[in-house]
Specification:
Elements lengths: L2 H9 L24 H24 L3 E5 L13 H14 L6 E5 L16 H8 L4 E7 L4 H29 L1 H4 L6 H8 L19 H20 L6 E2 L3 H14 L3 E6 L4 E5 H9 L8 E6 L5 E7 L4 E8 L2 E8 L5 E8 L2 E4 L1 H8 L6
Parallel strand pairs: 3-5
Antiparallel strand pairs: 1-2, 2-3, 4-8, 5-6, 6-9, 7-8, 9-12, 10-11
Helix pairs in contact: 1-9, 1-10, 5-8
């Protein structure tokens, strides 16, 4: 079975409510104005892509990473951007979404095309692209994942302690009030709240205000509700394929039959996951809310994004040296100024066993 046929079979298990592969992708509206935050995120993404490309090319002898993803320095509202964006949309419809990087065997690398084929029309490199052993979509995150997990663990323990102590305080000091027939259901609710059920517990704060003790009790219920709400927030950093990208990645795989992967670059580590595993994860509804969640990403024009726990993937780089950064001034049309951050340098220390395992690279690398 070819790689594409394997992927096609996996798409059949994905709920149409999540990704409907039978329907054409939604048409995107051309962005009209860039922001400083957008350009900084773009610069960070470019840095992450170059970080992975340099790491692979500096270590491997028989494999070469090449820049491939559709790219331009233009941003919304600059002259030429609309034409570039329309060309990009047309390409999405015809061949799908180019991954940021391609990995070639050294024997298949075309030196005359160089290390950047992102600006070459796809019709001129179709057969070359089909020789790639992997396509990598690089995503970046402005977090230190180890520090994040340490803080989230402390935070979870803190709010669990608050919640359970508040529950006990209510039952100890206010059970007489709750024993009234109109309020006794709250006793059952409180008894159902344990360390094991905090992540799913829910109730309506009563709203009692008629006596001082009822106000005190109501405030304790508010405190309990707030602590539970904090506990139930997503507590993992994620690999983030957008819903709209799932279809165009699938289209690219259909066109070229090359294995596809997502690499999530943090400022201390890098994790990778195959597109095949992404489909396997989102095909199982029991994983929803546990391994992955579906959210509107406020940092990306509220686009619906699948957020998969990074630890579901494989650690590709066990350490990352942070880049240097500096502020840049950019003058837009009508004299509007944008100030953003650029990133240079940094090193990713690859876990070679994990990287070769996920990419399926065998033998002398």
């Amino acid at each position: 079975m070819t790689y594409f046929k394997k992927i096609r079979e996996l798409t059949k298990g994905v709920s149409a409510e999540l990704v409907d592969f039978s329907q054409p992708r939604d048409l995107a509206r051309t962005p009209t104005q860039a922001s400083s935050n957008f350009i900084t995120n773009k610069e960070q993404g470019d840095w992450a892509e170059n970080l992975i490309m340099r790491a692979i090319n500096e270590f491997f002898h028989n494999f070469i990473a090449v820049k491939y993803g559709k790219y331009d320095d233009l941003v919304a509202s600059e002259e030429g951007f609309d034409a570039f964006y329309q060309e990009f949309q047309n390409e999405l419809n015809s061949i799908g979404k180019r991954p940021d990087l391609l990995i070639f065997k050294k024997a298949d690398f075309q030196a005359d095309l160089g290390f950047d084929i992102s600006h070459i029309p796809h019709a001129k490199i179709t057969e070359y692209v089909k020789k790639a052993v992997a396509g990598i979509e690089v995503r970046s995150s402005a977090f230190l994942i180890d520090r994040y997990e340490e803080v989230m663990q402390i935070r979870a323990e803190k709010f669990a302690k608050i919640a359970l102590e508040t529950k006990d305080k209510i039952l100890t000091n206010y059970k007489d009030i709750l024993s009234h027939p109109s309020r006794e259901n709250y006793i059952d609710i409180l008894n159902s709240i344990t360390a094991k059920t905090l992540n799913v517990a829910d109730f309506k704060v009563p709203g009692w205000r008629s006596t001082e003790r009822l106000i005190q009790l109501n405030d304790l219920f508010k405190q309990l509700k707030a602590a539970i709400k904090e506990i139930q927030k997503r507590d993992y950093l994620s690999i983030t394929p957008k819903i709209e990208d799932i279809k165009v990645v699938y289209k690219w795989i259909e066109t070229f039959n090359v294995p596809h992967f997502y690499f999530q670059v943090f400022f201390d580590k890098v994790y990778g996951i195959s597109f095949e595993q992404i489909l396997q994860i989102i095909s199982n509804p029991d994983n929803d809310g546990v391994i992955f969640s579906v959210e509107s990403d406020t940092k990306n024009q509220n686009k619906t994004t699948i957020k998969i726990n990074s630890k579901s993937g494989i650690e590709i780089a066990y350490k990352v040296d942070e880049p240097n950064h500096e502020s840049v001034r950019k003058e837009m049309d009508r004299g509007r100024l944008l100030f953003y951050v650029t990133f240079k340098g940094g090193t990713a220390y690859l876990d070679i066993d994990n990287l070769t395992d996920i990419l399926g690279i065998k033998g002398d690398f």
